[in-house]
Design a protein that fits this description.
Layout: H1 3-23, H2 50-61, H3 69-77, H4 83-93, E1 103-105, E2 108-110, H5 112-122, H6 136-140, H7 142-160, H8 174-181, H9 190-197, H10 203-213, H11 221-229, H12 233-242, H13 251-268, H14 285-295, H15 303-314, H16 321-343, E3 355-360, H17 363-373, E4 378-383, E5 391-394, E6 402-404, E7 413-419, H18 424-449, H19 453-474, H20 476-490, E8 496-499, H21 505-519, E9 528-535, H22 544-547, H23 558-568, H24 571-578, E10 589-596, E11 601-605, H25 615-637, H26 649-661, E12 677-681, E13 695-699, H27 709-716, H28 718-734, H29 736-739, E14 747-750, E15 754-757, E16 773-774, E17 777-778, E18 785-790, H30 793-801, H31 804-811, E19 815-820, E20 828-831, E21 834-837, H32 838-841, H33 847-853
Parallel strand pairs: 3-4, 3-9, 5-7, 9-10, 12-13, 12-18, 18-19
Antiparallel strand pairs: 1-2, 5-6, 7-8, 10-11, 14-15, 16-17, 19-20, 20-21
């Protein structure tokens, strides 16, 4: 090979890899189960307006990006969308309607707005999304396209799974292992296997050869690669996440395999009948007008009247109906929320505050905060659940460290858990017990996965396993209590501390200053300040991480709270903070805690570090946290499937605790279902309101943030993550077949990669159906996030102007923004052309609006 030829080949390979990367822009990111992080599955399309992005997604995936019109009409019947909401949405989309003259229609005078509203309510015809970017096999031989998918899923499952028979040659990388094994696959025809035997050693060369055989030119290559990647978006998304992480496979390997299969299969057999692609034709505007006349019971409509009505309806194509419904649906909730915030109590009697509790901004914390404040003497604040402690944490047992921080940032410090000075013996017993237990579990799992050992294992341990399984099924509460007790005996608790000395004092002080200033807690400290992290506990749940703290990388945030508390209690740190105008009184003590959101129990951490002077305060805190947790459990029981609505708080607390240890429970909790708004401001904004656990609540005091740095951090980090969460729930609800995970009842776990439905198929994206719906009824109302901020509007403008991500989210209507400079000012809506009064364009709330947020 000459140097010129070598250069040409390397150039073609590089171009292919670039094209694969460009094609992958439509893919979401799919994190492993142990760190399952919420993502917007259409994040690659956020540079487009929302309505345009969901149309593009429909072309790529063939799936809707919005609820169907029949669903919205049901909501209208239930009062969740009103005629006033529809009129407001139409007026925003078609501002000329406001001054339009009525038209005569079958003996009645109808305004153009009324006619359009009638079409939204009763109009016929709708267009379902159609996958427009298709592979050759989809077009010529659909059954072969299914074969390509089945082979792809089979080998990806073999590579990522950790079963009894690991994929031979896996250590050499996916493509090499697949290339060696695929030609021996007896499920393929001999001629196909022969062609696979000739596949190039390099993935790029194999892909280029297949593309040439398929007749795909360079100008169409990106779109064609995109068609292949979007056939099984789950596997492609997970491989995309692993790019650059040395997992042994990348999207070029994946695409090369799919293209090689397609090329070989089509060369041998494409006798199937090409797939029919029925083209839906929407009804004409005149047909729509005629139908409305019939629905309204109008007679004697003339041709001229029909023609005029048709011209009005032509301005609102059939494809515009659902986005208009979505806008009306969202404004119904948003108008009610903003008016409720106007009514919120503004005097929290801070002079009587004895304890401040800082929780995660997570929507589930809203209920805890509300019930705790009702007891009096408590002030609550909201802050991202990692408490600004971006750490890589190693617990007492050692092993692999965990990154406990948002995926947007990298851990800045390594923190280790150590035995306390007087707890060495306890720590040794705990570590010894944990090692024995881990060894026994490892031996058990190894025996289960070996080829013959399960038969021996069943004979040896079946007599014990069967009763245990029965107990877990029939009496989960008792079984769970016994198992917890036995675990405590085997692995006893130990007094430990977290080492923060490795962080230089200057960095500890900076952390403390930023954390306190961002949450607005710079004065008025109580005797106790509780940093309350959260996690979740459930049995037999691959999606456990989805219920833990997203700010901690899909893990419980207890170590973050403990790290922050250790720093904030240091004398040297407090001394330095006084020079920064943050004077923490000597009598103030910071305490770490963790809220189990499934059981609604709050555990105080590191009790051995709390001084005797504050033991009475902690005793009162224990009682009040138990009271608030039980009240929250009773509130949640009203929405949990299978929970009786009428319960005492004690019974409710026992019920949610039982759900957490029931291995058959597919609804351990609702997580962040129904999230709809992100509120940034002082607690005065929402105090006294029942926000129904639908809002992220981030504390912020504009008066102590003169340069806007704290607000910029909130808007570019927690708000962005909240939008990811919101979009994950939204798309899991409106497009569950593509962006959801299907029902839990048929899930099979594939290593740590994710789950598949049944024995083969695509890796499931998004959330299980049981996280968003109860049977056929959606529990999550899919609406885009509303950001609500109390801060100077000019400050918000400055932050948006210098952050392209915010320009995309707000400018392309992925997130709406309502703001006011003070509690006395009216709400304003951010638009690309400037601020405008919110209620000029949004309908007034009905009584139902107010009931839903107050």
């Amino acid at each position: 090979m000459t140097a010129t030829e070598s250069t040409t080949i390397e150039g073609r390979r590089a171009r292919l890899r670039s094209d694969v990367a460009l094609a992958a822009r439509v893919l979401p990111t799919h994190y492993p189960l142990e760190t399952f992080i919420a993502v917007n599955p259409l994040a690659g399309l956020e540079n487009m307006p929302f309505d345009q992005a969901i149309r593009r997604a429909g072309d790529v995936y063939g799936t809707p990006g919005i609820l169907r019109i029949k669903d919205f009409r049901k909501m209208h019947g239930a009062g969740r969308v009103t005629d006033a909401d529809l009129d407001a949405a139409l007026s925003r989309r078609y501002p000329n309607l406001a001054g339009a003259e009525p038209l005569r229609f079958g003996g009645r005078d109808l305004s153009p707005l009324e006619l359009m509203r009638a079409d939204l309510l009763h109009g016929v015809g709708c267009l379902e999304p159609v996958r427009r970017y298709r592979t050759r096999s989809e077009e010529l031989a659909p059954q072969l396209a299914d074969t390509v998918d089945a082979q792809t899923a089979k080998w990806c499952t073999a590579f990522f799974g950790a079963g009894a028979w690991p994929m031979p040659g896996r250590e050499s990388g996916f493509y090499s292992a697949w290339r060696a094994l695929a030609p021996r696959d007896p499920s393929l025809k001999r001629a196909v296997r022969a062609r696979l035997r000739r596949t190039s050693e390099r993935a790029e060369d194999a892909a280029l050869t297949a593309l040439e055989a398929l007749g795909v030119g360079d100008d169409r290559r990106i779109a064609y690669l995109q068609a292949h990647l979007s056939r099984l978006p789950g596997w492609a998304a997970h491989i995309h996440w692993g790019s650059g992480k040395s997992v042994g496979i990348d999207l070029t390997d994946y695409a090369a395999m799919r293209l090689a299969y397609e090329s070989a299969l089509l060369a041998v057999d494409h006798s199937d009948r090409p797939a029919d692609r029925p083209v839906a034709t929407p009804p004409s505007a005149r047909e729509r007008a005629d139908h409305i006349a019939t629905v309204l019971g109008l007679v004697g409509v003339s041709d001229d009247e029909l023609s005029v009505a048709a011209r009005v309806l032509a301005a609102m194509p059939v494809t515009a109906r659902e986005p208009l419904w979505q806008s009306a649906f969202e404004s119904h909730y948003r108008g009610g929320l903003l008016r409720a915030l106007d009514r919120a109590a503004r005097d929290l009697h801070r002079e009587h505050i004895h304890t401040q509790v800082v929780t995660c901004i997570d929507t589930r914390s809203e209920g805890l905060r509300r019930h705790l404040e009702s007891l009096g003497g408590y002030q609550t604040l909201g802050f991202a659940g990692f408490f600004a402690a971006a750490i890589r944490f190693t617990d007492l047992m050692g092993g692999v460290a965990s990154d406990l921080c948002p995926v947007l940032i990298a851990p800045s410090h390594e923190i280790s858990e150590l035995a306390s000075a007087d707890g060495t013996h306890q720590a040794e017993r705990r570590m010894s017990g944990a090692r024995r237990l881990a060894g026994a579990e490892a031996a058990f799992h190894t025996a289960k996965e070996a080829v013959a050992a399960p038969f021996t294992l069943a004979e040896a341990a079946g007599w014990a396993a069967a009763p245990l399984a029965a107990a877990k099924t029939l009496t989960p509460a008792l079984s769970g209590a016994i198992r917890r007790h036995l675990h405590t005996l085997a692995v006893p608790e130990a007094a430990t501390v977290l080492s923060v000395d490795a962080m230089p004092l200057a960095e500890r002080v900076l952390f403390a200053n930023v954390a306190l200033a961002t949450m607005g807690l710079v004065d008025g400290f109580g005797r106790l300040v509780v940093l309350c992290a959260h996690g979740s506990s459930s049995e037999n749940n691959p999606y456990q991480a989805a219920l833990d703290c997203g700010a901690c990388g899909g893990q419980a945030g207890g170590p973050n709270a403990r790290t922050a508390v250790a720093i904030l209690n240091e004398t040297e740190v407090r001394r330095e903070l006084r020079g920064m105008a943050i004077d923490i009184p000597d009598q103030t003590w910071f305490v770490a805690a963790q809220h189990d959101t499934t059981r609604d129990r709050i555990q105080i951490l590191d009790r051995h570090l709390i001084p005797a002077t504050h033991q009475e305060d902690v005793a009162r805190l224990d009682v009040d946290l138990a009271h608030a947790g039980a009240a929250l459990a009773a509130e949640r029981c009203a929405t949990l499937p299978g929970a009786r609505r009428v319960r005492t708080r004690a019974r409710a607390a026992r019920h949610v605790s039982t759900r957490s240890v029931d291995w058959a429970q597919v609804y351990p909790e609702w997580g962040l279902a129904d999230n709809a708004a992100f509120i940034v401001g002082p607690r005065d904004m929402s105090a006294g309101l029942d926000l129904q656990r639908r809002t992220f609540l981030h504390s912020y005091d504009a008066e102590v943030d003169a340069d806007g740095s704290a607000l910029e951090t909130i808007m570019t980090a927690p708000l962005v993550v909240a939008q990811w969460i919101n979009c994950q729930y939204y798309f899991s609800a409106v497009a569950p077949d593509v962006f959801g995970a299907g029902t839990k009842t048929v899930h099979n776990v594939v290593g740590s990669a994710g789950v598949i439905s049944g024995h083969n198929g695509d890796l499931r994206l998004g959330l299980p159906w049981q996280s968003i719906a109860d049977g056929s009824r959606l529990r999550h109302e899919p609406m885009r996030l509303l950001a609500v901020i109390q801060a100077p509007l000019s400050r918000i403008d400055t932050i948006i102007d210098r952050n392209p991500i915010l320009q995309r989210l707000f400018g392309n209507e992925w997130v709406s923004l309502a703001a006011r400079p003070s509690a006395e000012a009216p709400w304003q809506q951010w638009t690309r052309t400037g601020w405008r009064p919110w209620f000029e364009s949004y309908s007034l709330p009905t009584v139902l609006d107010e009931e839903r947020v107050s």
